[in-house]
Structure formats: C-alpha cells, structure tokens
Specification:
By secondary structure, the protein is α+β, with helices and mostly antiparallel strands. Helix content is 69%, strand content 12%. The chain contains ten helices and five strands. It has a five-stranded mixed sheet with strand order 1-2-3-5-4, covered by helices on one side. Strand 2 and strand 3 form a beta hairpin. Helix 2 crosses helix 4, helix 4 packs antiparallel against helix 5 and helix 7 (175-190) packs parallel to helix 8 (206-227).
Length: 304
C-alpha cells in the first residue's frame, strides 16, 4: 500500500506532463504490484481521488480541468487493468469449474444407473441360479441361505451407494430427507452418531441444495477418515440473503494453520469443498484445535 501511494502520484504527474506510453506502462506495473500485494481497488481509488484533489486547483481553467480528468481516467484505467484481467480469468475458471461439476454430476448419474439397474439384474440372476442349485442339490440349501443373506446385504449397499451418488430424495423431497438417508447409511457403516440440530423450513434453490448435500457428504467422510470422532452435529440457519450450515464433531481436531500440509499429506477433502463453494459464491470457515474437535461453517448466498 505504501509503495502504491508513493508511486502513483509521481507516475500520474509524468503522464499528465506528456510522458506518454512509458507512463502508461508504469501505471500497469503499479497495478500489478498492487494486485500482488493484496491492495484493494477501493484503496487505489482513494489514492487516485487524493491526486485529483491536488491537481484540480481553483486556479485551473476549464480546459485544463478537462485535460487532467481525461488523462487521469486513462491512467487509472491502465492501473486497474491487471485487476480486470484477473477477474476475467477467475470468471472463466469459475465457469469451467461449474461445467466440470455438471459433467461430474452426469457421470455420477450414469454410475448410479449402472449400480441400480445392471448390477441389480446380475443379482437377480444370481438369486435364480442359487435357487435352482438349492432345488437340484438339497444338501447345499444351508449354504445357499447364507450366500443369499450376503447378497441381500450387497443389494442394500448398492442401493445406498446409488442414492449417495445421485439422491432421488434430493430432487423429490429436498435436502433434509436426502441427508437423513445419507446419515443413516454412514452411521451404520462407521458407528458414528449424527445429529441434525436445525433444518431449513422451506426448500432451497436446487443448486444450493445439491452443493450442501455433497459438502455434507464430503465433510462426514473426512470425519470418518481423520477425526476419530464418535458424534457429529449439523445445523442450518437461513436468512434473507444466505444459508449457513455448521458441521461439528467431537474428534481430535487439528491446527487450521497447518491445513495446507494436512491437505497435501493426509488427503483432506477441504479443497473439494472450497471448489464447490467457489462455484456458488460460498465461503468456508474452519474452527478447530488439538483435542477440541472441528467445526466447519459454510455460508452460501441465496440466489435471487
């Protein structure tokens, strides 16, 4: 910020004095340096405004004021052009990520259909073959019963996996019923107790519901894999402008300062959560510490 405040007035003075293209190039370099330093556009605009106040003196003629305003506007536009290019790149990346997520959703639907239809048909064929074997060789009937029971468990798990990939309940009944079904299956497989503390009173926009569903699923898989927790609590709070979701566990916790290392070395799924939130303009806050569990606070603006 200090470097920008010092460089901007001098370079603007040179440009207004006739330095031409070289001064505009300097404006661009000032903008790049400010962007890399994390200087906000508002701060640059304040510096620009302060320069204009000094340049537009009461003694200046109308023609002189017009010349200063025109030249200063050109200089300011060149200075903030790195911000515009960065924003354009971010917008393109966000569009690409949204398209990628849509492709993933379509692929998930295809896999879910294979699990539900084709795998289901194979299981039916196995059931029939076992029944025929039992009829032809009565002595193997006790073994057939045991194998049939195992197949029943496989069929149940396939149904749950199919639902978790593309939850029909999410489209038909909404976020909360879909989450309850998801939590039931995860609790059975992990011995994790999951509590829903508060729920939205009304349906949310489809994209928001889909995002929250997949984030909750990813967060719970993280808890099962890393947290050594016994219980998880999830709650929602809706306002006129946003929906907030809190997911907290009673696990071992971790240091948020080392989250980059944890993501790289331990495979935490927080990168995927942030990417999903980025598509819908959401935000993730992590509250954690050694021995005191972890809380994820997810905020998503409501679509107008």
């Amino acid at each position: 910020m200090t470097d920008v405040a010092a460089a901007y007035p001098a370079s603007l003075h040179d440009y207004l004095g006739g330095a031409g293209e070289s001064a505009l190039q300097q404006a661009y370099q000032i903008g790049r340096a400010a962007l890399e330093a994390g200087t906000s556009l508002v701060a640059i605009a304040d510096i620009h405004h302060a320069c204009l106040r000094k340049l537009l003196t009461p003694e200046a003629s109308t023609d002189e004021c017009d010349r200063i305003l025109t030249g200063a506007a050109q200089f300011f536009a060149e200075c903030i052009s790195p911000y515009e290019m960065t924003y354009g790149g971010f917008r393109e990346a966000n569009t690409a990520l949204r398209h990628f997520n849509e492709v993933l959703e379509q692929e998930a639907k295809r896999i879910a259909k294979v699990l539900h239809d084709e795998a289901g048909q194979l299981l039916v064929a196995v059931y029939i073959a076992l029944q025929n074997l039992s009829d032809e060789v009565p002595a193997v009937q006790p073994h057939v019963v045991k194998v049939t029971q195992l197949l029943d468990q496989i069929e149940s798990q396939l149904r749950r996996l199919s639902h978790e990939l593309v939850p029909a309940l999410l489209n038909d009944l909404g976020l909360v019923p879909a989450l309850r079904y998801l939590f039931e299956g995860l609790a059975q497989r992990s011995q994790l107790t999951i509590f829903i503390e508060a729920v939205p009173e009304q349906r949310l926009p489809r994209r928001v519901e889909t995002t929250l569903y997949h984030i909750a699923k990813e967060a719970l898989h993280n808890v099962i894999k890393h947290a050594q927790a016994t219980s998880v609590w999830i709650g929602f709070h809706r306002t006129a402008d946003s929906i907030r979701c809190r997911i907290r566990d009673d696990g071992k916790g971790f240091s948020p300062e080392s989250i980059a290392v944890a993501q790289a070395e331990q495979g935490f799924g927080l990168i995927g959560i942030r990417e999903r939130l980025g598509v819908v303009g959401g935000h993730l806050q992590i509250n954690s510490g050694a021995g005191r569990g972890t809380e994820l606070v997810i905020s998503i603006p409501m679509e107008k």
